[in-house]
From TrEMBL:
It holds the Pfam family Flavodoxin_1. PANTHER family: FLAVODOXIN 1 (PTHR42809:SF1), FLAVODOXIN 2 (PTHR42809). Residues 41-216 form the Flavodoxin-like domain. This is Flavodoxin. The keyword Transport applies. The lineage of its organism: Eukaryota, Viridiplantae, Chlorophyta, core chlorophytes, Chlorodendrophyceae. It comes from the Eukaryota. Its cofactor is FMN. It comes from Tetraselmis sp. GSL018. Belongs to the flavodoxin family.
């Protein structure tokens, strides 16, 4: 299918801005004043460990009242977008599911995209302008850098969305040597803004500032664009300031800690009692729900096939209370005796980010159902 590609002029604009940039030491200065009239653009994101979330807050900081407060994607229904944000949306996702054809984000964004695809025959997003950003790691995953941008982009475009925000890196701010499905070789641009907060965090604010200037024109936003200049791209105190009227419990965004464990549950309870985990082995994230009589497992939260594991399948769990002030590590050993996944399944799951206050209740819940505490 052919996608509506915006003018190459758009991807060159950041270069113009960079050349004119002043060396002012002020932390935030007005770089552009757009006089066109428009309403708010929606700002949506999915995030597992917080980088994309924080990028969303930086975009909010740049574009101010012309965009909505950052909305976590599980709180948004695709069918409401056109009515709610008829000026367009800015949408961001990380890449976790390396080389997967879909479900690449490992966040609730996967469910959102799944639902958009389900509805795409109805031109769900017909005419809605959208711009995509995403976080990745070009050093660890040089063959799949920020691939999820492409999945979001393609899914939205196939549902009738009109893309803006194509990105050509500013000279001197190129990415580490890498390949990405979101890069279009023919036009030498990315279909959205990739951010590498793992290796190039010092460039994040500058990239976001340039991209926001471009978006302001492409969305015809009415309002000032602020340039971010702090050397620390993700300053949590600034994040808190921006989030002053935004109640996102910190315990819901536990930090990912890389380890050699095979599976990591990172307990973002975006929907009541569903816990998300990612494998780190190239497969998409999965969700678990601990109900009274079974553990339910599914690839997403909106209609994907669901597997049911009995509690007899939990052969034990180990509690590590030393892993920080906000969370504990809980290691579960699950065995799929019913072969519900279609093959023998025995995995060690590490649950991170369970709020301390939830741990005693969660442990007795499992013990009552026959799990042994190691
Ligand atoms: C298991 C695992 C797989 C990952 N796969 C990719 C990948 O395929 N491509 C990529 O660019 N980054 C990959 N990353 C890096 C994440 O995208 C990066 O850490 C990003 O900042 C996470 O964003 P978030 O904090 O919003 O979840 C991976 C990280 C982990 C731990």
């Amino acid at each position: 299918m052919s996608l509506n590609i915006s003018s190459k002029d758009h991807v060159l604009k950041p270069l113009l801005f960079r050349n004119k940039r002043s060396s002012s030491a002020r932390s935030s200065i007005i770089i552009h004043r757009n006089i066109c009239a428009s309403a708010q653009v929606g700002l949506l994101y999915g995030s597992a460990t917080g980088n994309t979330r924080e990028a969303a807050f930086l975009i909010k900081s740049c574009l101010g009242r012309t965009v909505s407060d950052p909305q976590e994607i599980s709180t948004v229904r695709p069918q409401d977008l056109l009515q709610k944000y008829n000026q367009g949306i800015i949408i961001g996702a990380p890449t976790w599911a390396t080389a997967c054809p879909e479900m690449r984000t490992g966040t609730a964004m996967d469910d959102f995209l799944w639902q958009v695809r389900e509805e795409s025959r109805n031109s769900l997003l017909s005419g809605l302008r959208f711009a995509v950003f995403g976080c990745g790691d070009a050093s660890q995953w040089p063959d799949n850098f920020a691939d999820a941008i492409d999945e979001v982009y393609t899914t939205m475009a196939q549902a009738g969305g009109q893309p803006v925000g194509h990105w050509r890196p500013v000279r001197g701010e190129e990415y580490l040597n890498s390949r990405s499905k979101s890069f279009r070789e023919d036009g030498h641009y990315y279909v959205g803004l990739p951010l590498d907060n793992i290796n190039q965090s010092h460039l994040t604010r500058s990239r976001i500032s340039s991209w926001c200037l471009q978006l302001s024109e492409e969305f015809s936003l009415k309002g000032d664009v602020q340039r971010l200049t702090s050397s620390d791209p993700f300053n949590m105190s600034e994040d808190s300031r921006l989030a002053s009227n935004y109640t996102y419990p910190r315990s819901r965004v536990p930090r990912w800690s890389t380890s050699n464990e095979r599976y990591h549950l990172f307990g973002s309870r975006l929907t009541a009692n569903w816990y998300q985990f990612g494998s780190g082995e190239g497969s998409a994230g999965r969700w678990l729900k601990f109900t009274d009589d079974s553990v339910l497992m599914r690839a997403g939260l909106r209609g994907q096939p669901e597997y049911q594991l009995s509690y007899s399948a939990i052969t034990g769990f180990r509690l590590d209370p030393l892993s920080g002030t906000e969370s504990v590590t809980l290691v579960l050993f699950l065995e799929d005796k019913q072969r519900l996944t279609g093959r023998p399944w025995s995995k060690q799951l590490v649950l991170k980010g369970l709020p301390r206050s939830d741990v005693p209740g969660f442990c007795s819940f499992l013990k009552e159902r026959g799990a042994a505490l190691h």
